[in-house]
Design a protein that fits this description.
- The chain has 6 helices and 5 strands.
- By secondary structure, it is of the alpha+beta class.
- The strands form 2 sheets. A 3-stranded antiparallel β-sheet has the order 3-4-5. A two-stranded parallel sheet has the order 1-2.
- Helix content is 37%, strand content 13%.
- It has one domain.
- It is globular and about 50 Å long.
């Protein structure tokens, strides 16, 4: 798969959602199988991009997915790359997107906490900027 430039989008949280009516042990077993497969993909130095089944699932919080990715051995930097530089590279946009540099669009997400200390903090969005303008101020939608 790596030779053919396949990128993996794990969506590990889906197993717990799909098996939500089963025993917790079944949910964990399936999720841990996915975590093991992601761990093997990482060992093969395969590309990982973040994805979600939001829209299919009613739970919109991605923090569980981040935690499962970390359980597979992904560092904070690898998980951040799966959200930013990996998709930009995969879709041929790495010169324009996926990083912070002079002359590039000012698309940023500002977080409440430090995700290098707690990976779930990637979901604690304070506000989002697109092209340097705030498009999502969290205080407008919920209390933090």
């Amino acid at each position: 798969m790596k030779e053919h430039h396949v990128a993996l989008i794990p969506t590990l949280k889906l197993w717990k959602y799909e098996l939500r009516h089963d025993r917790a042990s079944a949910q964990d077993r399936f999720a841990q199988t996915g975590v093991g497969q992601l761990r093997a993909w990482l060992a093969a130095r395969g590309m990982v991009m973040f994805g979600t089944d939001v829209g299919y699932m009613g739970d919109y919080d991605p923090s569980e997915e981040y935690a499962l990715m970390a359980d597979a051995g992904m560092s904070f930097r690898q998980i951040l790359a799966s959200l930013t530089t990996a998709p930009a590279e995969r879709f041929g946009e790495s010169k324009q997107l996926g990083r912070i540099a002079a002359g590039l669009p000012g698309d940023l997400v500002v977080l409440k906490d430090d995700p290098s200390k707690n990976i779930r903090a990637l979901a604690a969005v304070q506000y989002t900027l697109r092209d340097g303008k705030i498009i999502y101020p969290v205080s407008k939608y919920k209390q933090v």
